[in-house]
Amino acid sequence: MLALLAVPLIALAGASSPTDLLAGVRHPLFGPALRLSALTTAASLAVVVAAGTPLAWWIATRPRRRVRWAESLVDLPIVIPPAVMGIALLETFGRGGLFGPALAEAGVRVAFTATAVVLAQIVVSAPFYVQAAAAAFRKVDEDMLIVARTLGQSPSGAFFRVAVPLAAPGVVAGAALSWARAMGEFGATLLFAGNLPGTTQTMPLAIYAALESDVRAAIALALVLAAAGGLLLLPLRLAAR
User: Fold this and answer.
1) pTM here?
2) Above 80 in pLDDT, residue 127?
3) Residue 98, SS3 per DSSP
4) CA angle 221-11-185, nearest 5°?
5) Which long-range CB contacts under 8 A does 224-230 form with residues at least 24 apart?
């Protein structure tokens, strides 16, 4: 199993010479895809952290039997294929979808735009953050919050000044996992946002497109994603310690 996990990565690392790698980086697909992935994943992570932290806290501080339905909804995007989530988003925000007519009347277009890329990334990556943050919040000693309240802190003050710092390692790890999942998102983005160069073509989609024209660009993009994942392991390990 270790060999099966390691050998393909070794093969990828040795598949390109420095000259070919430089040519791949100079490919017209590389720069726009890298820039779009960086911007959209930053935006999606900001939304996931801002909206997912209160949800994780709510799940962590309520009796498990009362929030099982919410936990199940959070977990669904993990077990549902990304392509299915892409179709679901299209049926929600597309021209003929649930909110399509209202959005069209307001002059707002969501599907096949950069906004669609961000929405697809949020939907598929949020469960990783919410799960990790909820697990971290469950480990916070409730007595610490009670003491903070007796010392004059408001509920929000106790949350931000006590609960969040104590749960920070798990929250950071969840944010990192969420970002990594957003960076590698393919299926939902392809179906909901399309594969439009410079507009919705993220790095995974650019790899798919480059395989048909220039394998060197595909390998260069793949190496960047692999390197990003490898570098991400370091803060995750440090956060766990």
Assistant:
1) 0.91
2) yes
3) coil
4) 35
5) 224/34, 225/183, 225/184, 226/9, 226/12, 226/13, 228/180, 228/183, 229/180, 229/184
Could you tell me which residues come within 8 angstroms of residue 129 by beta carbon, excluding any fewer than 6 positions away? Answer: 48, 49, 52, 56, 174, 175, 177, 178
Task: Please check whether residue 111 is in contact with residue 191, taking contact to mean a CB–CB distance below 8 angstroms.
Answer: no
Report helix, strand or coil for 94.
coil
- Say which amino acid occupies 118: V
| 52 contacts 133 by C-beta, under 8 angstroms | yes
The token pair at 182 is 């957003």
Contact predicate 130/50, CB 8 Å: no
The CA-CA-CA angle for residues 30, 36, 38, to 5°, reads: 100
Q: Domain residue spans in the chain?
A: 43-240
Express each pLDDT in 198-234 by its tens digit: 999 999 999 999 988 888 889 988 998 888 888 887 7
State the CATH class of domain 43-240. mainly alpha
Polymer length of the chain: 241
